[in-house]
Amino acid sequence: MSVKITIKGSQETSEYAEAKKLKKTFEEYFNQNDNGEIIIIPSATLYGQEIKDIDLIVIGKLKSHLIRNIHTKIYDTTLREPVIIKESKNIFVNNFCYVFEIKSHRAESITREGLTLFVKYDNKKKDVTSQSEKQKYSLKSYLEENTGKSPFISNFIWFKNVSSESLDYLTENNLNNYLSSNFKIIDLFKKAFLQNFPRCAKDENGMYRHFASYDSYFLKNDDIDLENQAKVFDIFLENKKGMGSLTRDKIERLNRKLFKNQNYAEDLGKKLIIFSGKAGTGKTTKLLNAAFDLALNHQKRCLILTYNHALVSDIRRIIALQGIPDGIDSHTVKISTLHKFFKDVLEGFNIGTKPNEVGDVELDNYLDDEIYYKLLNELVDFIDEGLIDEEEITNLMKSNYDTIDFEYLLVDECQDWDEREKVVLYKLFGQHNIILAEGSDQLIRTKLNCNWTYGMRPRRDFNKTYENKSLRQKKSIVWFINKYAEKVGLNWLLEPKEEMNGGRIIIKIGDYTNELHNELLTDLYKNNNVPYDMLFFTPPNNVTKHKNDKGYTYSHFNKLEEFNMLGAKLWDGTSYQFRSKSQYPIDTNQHRIFQYDSCRGLEGWSVICLDFDEFIRYKLETYKEEKNENELALETFEQKRDRFIYLWSLIPLTRPIDTLVITLKNKNSFIYDVMKNIYKENEEIISWLE
Fold first, then answer.
1. 550 and 404 share a domain?
2. Of the candidates 69, 147, 56, the residue with the CA atom closest to the CA atom of residue 98
3. How far apart are CA 228 and CA 147, in angstroms?
4. pLDDT by residue (tens digit) across 591-624?
5. Which of 174, 201, 235 finishes a domain?
6. In angstroms, rounded to a whole number, what is the distance separating the alpha carbons of residues 674 and 486?
7. Which SUPFAM superfamilies does the record associate with it (predicted)?
8. What CATH number corresponds to the domain at position 376?
9. Could you tell me which of 50, 48, 58, 57 has the C-alpha nearest to residue 236?
10. What predicted TM-score, i.e. pTM, was given to this entire model?
11. Which of 229, 306, 449, 526 is the most exposed place for a label (fewest CB within 10 A)?
């Protein structure tokens, strides 16, 4: 056979068996006169994408492969729009890119509502149509980022235990992208033509030519290197092999059975569970540990909510490296920002929505705080008035299987949430299916603690643990942080772990240098870590924002080129492009950089706090007091402000494990004096570079 068909991927997966069936189906379809190349990739991981697990990907290019007498809509290359024609066309298939979602359900477990197919899992309906659509766009984004190519991807749902007759009966013979158990390749191409119309031009007489062409890549076949396209699906395995000791240890830590022999294990699903502690005591890690335990050892679906985009990025990377599935048909751990979650909830209940260009409902200016809280008030009013019942919640869950429909909800930094958000979460999930991480001394988003246990009885309605011991920092860093807290007037003390000896603190006056970077990098490699494990924080004055011609706001770290010259290759987490895609670094040779506002929950072997005094100055200048009618006026505005800001400043200082670097700009600043005094008290563990 002249069409070379290759399967690229692990033979140990169930998807590999389906890949072999698909290969045989292709072989039966082509004849000796056909020429070309096809690569089938089973069980692909789109490392770096929110939707990462793909059952089958098929990429192919053919030479002069003609399919005759096809009735289909075409794309008029002159009018540049799809048109319906009466006559059939002969279609040259040049190249294609397809993604398959494979389902083992039988016909009786599949239902249709309009254009959407649902399959049953644990007696719950799950939207398989939306799942398949999201996979298509995830693959497109992945190929654009890693190959520079942007193909038109057609998506299919392959029901391997449903006959063509049953599928036709179920869909009432309507046009669709569903494949039966023993579909033919001609059926596959016909369904692909419904998504990506063959292109046809008119002749000099204004008549459509007899031949149309079908392309996914819109390139000459000679310009499509299939082997190079297929290589990008090795990125996940390369990252898994190349991750440093810090990531390996973290995954090992998260895989421990948290709920075995713990005092709150028996309360799971019966009471609200709260992990409480200071910055650096591992609250977020314990929350992750709980989610991993529930998913891997108890086969549960868990959702983690945070408002921190950087933490979403970091945790999605860990979830991907751990290999936790993200499908609708199994246990999983998902993480989302609270704003994305509440957007889905508000749209699901049709609150504040309006039709968009394609007829779907969506929210407008949703991220504006005034609009957000107005809509949230409306939702809470509906709940208080009993206008949202259990049936509506069930329908909301069903139509949002991958964003809302979860068995357990885990909330990070719950003290920093709004009371109205708490009310909605309790209504949707019930307090007994919620696990919280609470740091009462860490407020970023608000100035007032959210009370999640109001009206509840300790030990009967909720189980709360308290952590006061540092999880990650070595002893010298814990000593430094405690001393810093004392110098800035905070009543704050962190207890080190006895076995965590060592740790370095470097205070650099002026700019970060090549010499310092090389020193840190050498230490990083010496301890079997990788550049990803070196983490930078920057104040807003080092981030440039600008708008493009369409009015979209973009931002970037404005010293990227300067740091590249120092040998510091950065993955820019200050960029709005990162925030909109919620991706994570796929190159372990890059360091991460985020604004200080995004530092909570992150960790690094080495952490560099750039222009720390500038960050403190910015926070002091932008502080706004929130009035609390129930609070006694025991502090002045300045006292409240300083306590809030300096408590805040402990968060970036508690991110490192081994090495903390602080750069300072202004020798006349209060923070400079604080650091100098701490240095003079213990010059053995602090390096002062001036």
1. no
2. 56
3. 8
4. 999 999 999 889 999 999 999 999 999 999 998 8
5. 235
6. 10
7. P-loop containing nucleoside triphosphate hydrolases (SSF52540)
8. 3.40.50.300
9. 48
10. 0.85
11. 526
